[in-house]
Design goal:
Protein name: Cytochrome C assembly protein
GO molecular function, one term: heme binding
Radius of gyration: 19 Å
GO cellular component, one term: plasma membrane
Oligomer: single chain
Distance between the termini: 25 Å
Structural class: mainly alpha
Organism: Lysobacter enzymogenes
Number of domains: 2
Pfam family, one: Cytochrom_C_asm
Number of strands: 0
Strand content: under 5%
Order of helices and strands: HHHHHHHH
Number of helices: 8
């Protein structure tokens, strides 16, 4: 619990430093947040490793998976922010990761998780990486929409200084989607190859929603390449595809594990 509390405090400290930097000069050149953010990420991962060691296996149930997605989002945010692009993303991601970690600590531990062979573990880790990457893309889409709306109304808020130019933000959005799409493709392929008895395991609805999300993200990338889709169209497709993905994974896990009490 001590490690978790320290990680949460570091996440919130990093977010606070970013807020101050954004208010001061739009967050340009800010580096003070990197140390607490990186330490928080390390402790976040360590908390999971210690819990798995005590339980005798990797726990990938609802709150554990939610926390791991938050960890992945924080890692991506730290990487993107350290490169000097979209550090302000941490204002949203770091408190969200802290909340997910706290939920895992309070409600998410499973005493004896079901052991998974390396094939199912590979599938699960690919899924978590895909969800984390595409969740960051969804946040980029929201920021793109807010920026476009403010500029269209000629409302030049101070927080706009924390965002890169529209073209750069849009480029970052589609690059992130492309990476997430590759990871989601790998997730579906490993699922087809390694997961058996989809109906018996109550996974059919999860598979259908995941495939629909994959088609939506793929359609968006195709539309971008073929027709130059951008702006509001890109935002709508991104958020719709992400909503399908959230329903596929966390919606199904919530119903099965927390409502129906099935593993």
């Amino acid at each position: 619990m001590t490690i978790v509390l320290i990680a949460i405090a570091l996440y919130l400290s990093a977010a606070g430093l970013l807020v101050r930097a954004v208010r001061r000069d739009g967050g340009r050149g800010a580096r003070g947040w990197l140390l607490p953010a990186n330490l928080a990420v390390l402790l976040h991962g360590l908390a999971h490793l210690m819990a798995w060691r005590g339980a005798g296996g990797a726990d990938l149930h609802f709150f554990a998976a939610l926390s791991l997605v938050g960890l992945g989002m924080s890692i991506l945010t730290a990487i993107v922010g350290a490169a000097g692009r979209m550090a302000a993303l941490g204002v949203v991601v770091f408190p969200l990761s802290a909340l997910m970690l706290l939920a895992y600590q309070l409600y998410g531990h499973v005493q004896h998780p079901e052991p998974l062979d390396w094939r199912l573990q590979l599938h699960a880790w690919m899924a978590l990486l895909a969800y984390a990457t595409l969740a960051v893309a969804a946040l980029f889409a929201v920021m793109l929409w807010l920026q476009e709306s403010a500029l269209r109304r000629r409302e030049f808020h101070g927080w706009l200084r924390a965002l890169p130019p529209l073209v750069e933000l849009e480029s970052l959005l589609f690059r992130t989607i492309a990476v997430g799409f590759v990871l989601l493709t790998a997730t579906l392929l490993t699922g087809v190859l390694f997961v058996e008895n989809l109906l018996a395991q109550h996974l059919m609805h999860k598979t259908v929603l995941s495939v629909l999300s994959w088609l939506a993200f793929g359609g968006l990338l195709l539309g971008r390449w073929r027709y130059g889709w951008r702006g509001v169209v890109a935002v709508r497709w991104t958020l719709a595809a992400m909503a399908l993905l959230v329903l596929a994974f966390f919606g199904s896990k919530f119903v099965l594990e927390l409502v129906l009490r099935r593993v």
